[in-house]
Amino acid sequence: MDIQGLRTVAVLAVISDHLLGYPFGGFVGVDVFFVISGFLITSLLLREQERTGRISFSGFYRRRVKRIIPAAVIVIAVTIILSWALFRRTRAESITWDGFYALIFGANWHYAATGTDYMQAGGPVSPLQHFWSLAVEEQFYVFWPWLIVLVMGVLAHRLSLSLAAARRLLAGVMGLVVAAAFVFSLWETAARPTVAYFSTASRTWELAVGALLAVIAGSLPTLSLMMRTVLGYAGLAGIIWSIIYVSPDMAFPGPWGCVPVLSTALVIAAGINGPQPYLYPLTNRVSNYLGNISYSLYLWHFPVIILMESVVPQENLTAWVLMVLGMGALSIASYHFIEDPIRKSSWLDPSPRPPRKRKSSGLDQPSKQAAMGVLVSVTAFAVILAITTTTETEPSLSVQPAPASTSGQEGATPDAPPDTAAGRLSAEIEAASTSTAWPELSPSLDNLAFVPEWTVDKCMNVTDANFSQCIYGDTAAAKTAVVIGDSVALSWMPGLRESLGKQGWRIQLLTKEQCPAIELQVERSDDKAGFADECIAHQQWTMAKIAEMTPDMVLVSSALNTRDRLVGAPAKEEALSLWSEATVQKLTDVREVTEGQIVLMSVAATGKNLMECATRVSRPGDCAVTDRDRYVSTVAAEKAAAESVEGTRFVSTVPWFCGSVSCPAFAGTTPIFVDPQHITPEYSAKLAPVLSEAILGPEEG
Predict the structure, then answer these.
(1) Which pLDDT score is estimated for 210?
(2) Bridge partners (DSSP) listed for residue 554
(3) How sure is the predictor about 334, in pLDDT bands with cuts at 50, 70 and 90?
(4) Which of 199, 213, 216, 485 is surrounded by the most beta carbons within 10 Å?
(5) Furthest-apart CA atoms within the chain: distance in Å
(6) pLDDT > 90: what percent of the chain?
(7) Which helix (H) or strand (E) holds 485?
(8) Pfam families in the record, alphabetically (predicted)?
(9) Does the pLDDT value for residue 459 go beyond 60?
């Protein structure tokens, strides 16, 4: 009963984290599951080894297949089918591949790879991403039974050990596994945090803690009911503390994974020598039932959340209630029609003799249960989506230019004359900000890409090694412009090549991914160790290059989300103040080493991921920029910084992204964002005449 209660706590923590984003440590529910799994599976294997003198590997893996595969396959299939119905081709194809990796229990390594790929890290969340934990478990159980056989069977036999001595030997071996795996987890968490989170090697110690507890269970001292109750509540308190206070910013799974892992082991240990009548939060009927269906709940909850968010993009109480009802109905149906009946059936069991021929050619019972489960699951999900989708998307309408108007926000530039490039762009932005239907976009949302200077020329990270290959425009030109900053600065390049490059300028990139032009200590989005120092070193190298080149122009640009990655995670107001001070300092430092013109291009807006928000049932407003206030306040702070340093031209990007109503996802028929941070190469090129006017002035531009 207390095991089922622990499963309830674990699955509710995970669901709450994914649905509400709170508690921040809800993800530790997976660690609770790992310990439970290691304990239960090892207990079963040990009982079989001691009862029969051997472990039937065919029987073990047959039971795993019956327990895991049927419900998982149906969830994967339903998710893929609905993804093709809701999403555009590129995202649907991506989810299909996610389903493939989930089926072969390789999802954790798949997501570890995409999570450390900067171009994919900002992509839409997969509704099958949670299958990574199942992959970790099944990879663990590929070798774990063999280790038990090696120690309890082979070594114990050769050393003529008694059963008790064999158990002690196994406990020692497992203790070494726990220690070694934990040390590796500490190293990998520090060196490669994203990989460590998904890594079987860094998670092995968690499953092994549960396994070690199963081995030593018979040797634990017999405690009074009161003492066991106290220990049970202490362990439960540790789990709850982890759920509330452990955050993604902490080193995880090592060392902070120790708290939920050891707390879970404590709760299990407290219940080994007898029932826990006073551990009511874990032993009541509701907790017991939710624990029974926890596997189905875990499988269904994330597809329900992600797929329903595509048709109900606004987070509100109604949406949350519908999601909870949806995942609850699907999980109950899945458990009673698929998971439990197939687990108890004779499917895959060895037959002592050939089965007698039947006159009926109908489906066997497991197949009937699976078919019924599929029917119930698909029907329920379809009804839920139908309820949330009140209307179909209207046919595409052409976007007609509207009169330009002032955004009314600080940091915006005055209205541009309608006969200028800025005026024409402003009209397109204004029209898009009030549009109720998607135009025929070019490129289509299925063909969005990052700028070629990044993907083809590999000039994301410029060093002495690739310095000469990251020169654009007229390489023999008398005038040189240098671009410093991060990948957002790099994203301006198609437009800069069209504007400056075709007007007799040589453009030199000095960019580095996630490293802003201004000297602030920042973390990488994947928490790569040592990145803050690496970034500062690059900024110092950049200043040395500028002093050496003495360019005619230095263009400075950084990403808005840099404010979210400052070392120490300062509060909103402090982060903006640090940003302003660092901007003034950078402009001053540049002025000291060159007499050329300094152009501070304000941060670009941060949009939504179009592959996530633009579905077959969405409208343009669903993809509009939501963090407009932070964007405009940062632009205003940069403008003030530029005005304090003589010879600096400030270029506000607000009119390039925002109209009077909203900051839309497209202008005319051109998509603006390829992901939340970076503009498309097509939009960058579209900005070429605007960039000419803004940077060179109307005379040259």
Answers:
(1) 98
(2) 482, 598
(3) very high
(4) 485
(5) 94
(6) 68
(7) strand 479-485
(8) Acyl_transf_3, SGNH
(9) yes
Q: How confident is the model at residue 223 (pLDDT cuts 50, 70, 90)?
A: confident
Hey, how many other C-beta atoms are within 10 angstroms of the C-beta on 60?
17
- DSSP string over 202-248: HHHHHHHHHHHHHHHGGGSPP--HHHHHHHHHHHHHHHHHHHHH--T
Per DSSP, the three-state class of 569 is: coil
Q: To which residue do tokens 């049932």 refer?
A: 617
* Chain centroid offset of residue 342 CA: 33
If phi > 0 it is left, if psi is from -120 to 50 it is alpha, else beta; for residue 294 that is alpha
Taking the C-alpha atoms of residue 376 and residue 383, their distance in angstroms, rounded to an integer, is 11
pLDDT of res. 671: 96
| Region 487-496 average pLDDT | 96
Q: How many CA atoms lie within 13 A of 534 on its CB side?
A: 14
Q: Pick the residue with more confidence: 246 or 371?
A: 246
SS3 169: helix
Domain ranges of the chain: 2-349+364-388, 449-618+630-647+678-700
**Does residue 432 contact residue 390 with C-beta atoms inside 8 Å?**
no
Between CA 498 and CA 386 the distance in angstroms is 47
pLDDT digits (tens, 9 = 90+) for 507-565: 999 999 999 999 999 998 877 778 999 999 999 999 999 999 999 999 999 999 898 89
For tokens 């949330």, name the residue.
388
Residue with tokens 């020598």: 273
Burial 169-204 (b: 16+ CB within 10 A, else e): bbbebbeebbeebbebbbebbbebbbbbbbbbbbbb
Q: Rounded mean pLDDT of 327-346?
A: 94
Say if strands 597-601 and 553-557 run parallel, antiparallel, or are unpaired.
parallel
**Residue 664 CB neighbour total at 10 angstroms:** 25
pLDDT for 369 equals 55
pLDDT digits (tens, 9 = 90+) for 398-424: 333 333 333 333 433 446 778 889 999
Distance CA 370, CA 74 (A): 8
**d(C-alpha 623, C-alpha 621), whole Å:** 5
Tokens in use for 28?
Answer: 């530790």
Residue of 503, 497, 535 whose CA lies nearest to 517 = 535
The pairing of strands 505-511 and 553-557 is: unpaired
Judged against a pLDDT cut of 90, whether residue 78 lies above it is answered with yes
Q: How many C-beta atoms surround the C-beta of residue 434 within 10 A?
A: 15
For 594-663, where are the alpha helices, taking DSSP H only? 610-613, 628-643, 654-657
Q: Return the number of other C-beta atoms located less than 10 Å from residue 502's C-beta.
A: 12
Report, as an integer, the average pLDDT of 133-157: 94
Query: Counting Cβ atoms within 10 Å, is residue 70 exposed (0-12), middle (13-18) or buried (19+)?
Result: buried
In terms of DSSP bridges, do strands 666-667 and 670-671 run parallel, antiparallel, or are they unpaired?
A: antiparallel
Quote the tokens at residue 539: 């900024």
Closest among 622, 599, 619 to 609, alpha carbons compared? 622
Distances (CA, A) of 526 to 8, 383, 425, 657: 30, 38, 36, 28
| Average of per-residue pLDDT across 21-39 | 96
Q: Which residues make Cβ contacts (< 8 Å) with residue 56, sequence separation at least 6?
A: 48
Q: Are 133 and 124 in contact (CB under 8 A)?
A: no
pLDDT at residue 395 greater than cutoff 50: no
CATH architecture of the region 449-618+630-647+678-700: 3-Layer(aba) Sandwich (3.40)
Planar angle of CA 26, 32, 37, nearest 5 degrees: 145
HEC states along 407-470?
A: CCCCCCCCCCCCCCHHHHHHHHHHHHHCCCCCCCCCCCHHHCCCCHHHHCCCCCCCCCCCHHHH
